[in-house]
Amino acid sequence: MIVDVLCLRNVQLDDGLIVEEGSPEALFILYVHDQDTSTAFYAAVLARAPSLHEPGMTEFALGPGATLGLMPAAGIRRLLGDGLPDPAAAAGIPRAEIYLVVPDAAAHHHRALAAGARELSPLLPRDWGQRVAYSLDPDGHVLAVAEA
Question: What is the pTM of this model?
Fold first, then answer.
């Protein structure tokens, strides 16, 4: 898996993950309806267990400096109060895209579909030179998997 996070140079890790050295630490948080359902989905797609899983937050390490977080929408609403528009009001409307560049995009896409994703587009060549497949996760976030 490659994580593209404003960095200086690529580093190949033992599990095939390629990340950039010298990047800031980034936690990307998706607001989800059901934390356990979303945790099971991303554990299947990423073929790894979460690095943190407790009530209110699940995290998947994507590589040094990059983490995918899953937080119940109700939790962020409680945390930030009425000043935040209710994320539940946008349920099913794509609000974010997770774009993963991986060595085997077809396998990741297949795992996503097997875990309940809805296919938007199969793995196809795109105008920018990558082969990418698109699906929707259980909360309606766009999941893209591209070949490295």
Answer: 0.79
Residue 91 has which token pair?
Answer: 């349920």
pLDDT digits 0-9 by tens, 20-56: 555 578 899 999 999 999 999 999 999 999 999 999 9
CATH code for the domain in which residue 120 is found: 3.10.180.10
* Contact of 75 with 56, CB cutoff 8 Å: yes
Give, in order, the Cα–Cα distances in Å from 6 to each of 1, 20, 81. 16, 8, 32
Within-domain flag for 123: yes
- 139 occurs within a structural domain: yes
CB-CB contact of 11 with 19 (8 Å): yes
Q: How confident is the model at residue 11 (pLDDT cuts 50, 70, 90)?
A: very low
Rounded (10°) CA dihedral 60, 99, 33, 75? 60
